[in-house]
Predict the structure.
Amino acid sequence: MNSCREIIVSPQKGPSYPVVVGVGLWARAVATIPPGRVCLIADRTVFDLYGPSLVGALERTGRAPVKVTFPAGERSKTRRTKVGIEDRMLAEGLGRDTVVLALGGGVTSDLAGFVAATYMRGVPYVNMPTSLLAMVDATVGGKTAVDTAAGKNLVGAFHQPSMVFVDLASLATLPREETWCGLAEMVKHAVVADAGYLSFLKQKAAALWRGEPDICCEAVCRSIEIKAAVVSQDTTEQGVRRVLNFGHTVAHALEQQAGWRLSHGKAVAAGMAVEAEVAFLLGLLAADDRDVLLGVLREVGIWHVPTFPDPDRLVHVMSWDKKAFGGKIRMALPEAVGRMCSGNGEWSVEVAPDLVLTALRRVWGV
Amino acid sequence: MNSCREIIVSPQKGPSYPVVVGVGLWARAVATIPPGRVCLIADRTVFDLYGPSLVGALERTGRAPVKVTFPAGERSKTRRTKVGIEDRMLAEGLGRDTVVLALGGGVTSDLAGFVAATYMRGVPYVNMPTSLLAMVDATVGGKTAVDTAAGKNLVGAFHQPSMVFVDLASLATLPREETWCGLAEMVKHAVVADAGYLSFLKQKAAALWRGEPDICCEAVCRSIEIKAAVVSQDTTEQGVRRVLNFGHTVAHALEQQAGWRLSHGKAVAAGMAVEAEVAFLLGLLAADDRDVLLGVLREVGIWHVPTFPDPDRLVHVMSWDKKAFGGKIRMALPEAVGRMCSGNGEWSVEVAPDLVLTALRRVWGV
């Protein structure tokens, strides 16, 4: 694969930006990033893998970057890490003409994007995602945030990137757990909007797990297109964007109950199974469509039954989720494979706790 | 004065919002704020003065607010205070349906506005400014920020309020130093856009110092209109908004050299005198107009000659200001009383360090 594909994302608010997808494109990409002093932000693991060559490419264009690294992992996604990055940038004398270059997975784009959103009241940032999840999820939507002790993504901002460069070569070093996370979101995109894409994911599962560039390019682009189409209608999550929460009401409760030691990909895969069952029990989704969806989770290789002690507690946690309104459980639910339930424009449906309990028991036999 | 005046501010980005100016209007205003749970943020001094009656008014509308206070003063305008406020809000279970009510001076609107900008990726905020400076400055423009050890307002966001309520009754408790700050900004607005307003300020100086509601209302509204007209053309400070930096290049250097122990109002008043002289030396401003401007500073009672040791160091600091481009000193300069120099659309002019030194010596004899 020598060619690139480019998708133009047009947020409802803010200017359009390109997402370029290909192999080995970072070295060329650095010649096209916006003017200004470059601040490269990465975790130490990713920096060790790709930092030196990227810095070399930048230096060849006469733009030696300021390099800021932090320890890898979700535990770095805090206000404290953000302060540390900002203080480094200030100590380096970076001004309003700074361009932040976020190199890494979802933690890095969330964190570095949030730094860019508030540094001198906002500087441009360029996103170079290295994980499958970050490629299909963090490239579109402009969501940036950090976690606090009270929960994930509670402090943040909407800040669109100026450009995104997806280099599929970085998938070669991706841990299996991370691939799982990406595939779970991709299945979600297919369920939300495109039954044909769901078939593609099922058929090409092995190639996707191996990180084959042509197949990954096809799938990553389709996921980005779907997410971009949804988000462009609703930048700040007041309506149709809620369809992207499919699987996530249950997933967040699972993650919280597991003390955030459950991977997001496994939680989302498990959550989609339960929420599909909820949709069936509510009479929104036909049994055949539910079975197709559950079958795809198994065939793609992301079926997961979490070990957890107490379904009642899980349901209790759900009614305190950030997306719960007034203590009520709401879910974005499919009404067919490839089509979500509009719920009178709310794009989510109120679900009784007992029904969620029933769905949990039917899917996992708990 | 029993009536209110209302100004509609239309930012280039984001929805329009009303600024209501009057006396004793908070009690009525609380009935009109956006739906959601109310979080009242104020420093302890202001809360002691106005908090209980505002809380009482809110409770009478059935909306008991969460109250979050912090120590008064610029030293509270930090990322640390922001974290403390956020953690209190999270502990109170405040969700995305929160409305932040900022009650206080510029520190409070900058800090509480920034909290609102990033809490759950942004919640609405209502501004209730209590100082003359906050009334004429922080009500328009959407600038929010905190300070860091490296300087003022280095981390922040653009976040427009949903509504602003200016209660002139709060001027009765304003310290003299704070009035000075407001008057300096008001003179700046007049120099930037309205020679007639400059005459008004000169004639009504005594009434303004006394806080007479009718005169203050007239002046506050005129200042808000001028700032709103400038800002609506340029929300993110890429062009014409720079005219509002008149006096501020020198002011920031003075404040920094004084270790931030010089009041902003005195720094801006001093800065306008020097920058008017710079404009004269560059041949941009006629001697008569410069003399009018210097005369107004004296007649309004805000003329100030700072005590500082080293003009050379002051000029050095200026070339490292956040608004300096590539180490060069730039200033927004008037070409007449009421009209700023467009500088080929840059709305600022590059000034040689030696010329600034000359101006400093001529104005203050240092």
Remarks:
- Chain B is about 45% helix and 20% strand.
- The interface with chain A takes residues 13, 79, 83, 86-87, 90-91, 95-97, 114, 117-122, 143-145, 148-151, 153-158, 236, 320, 322, 325 of chain B (CB under 8 Å).
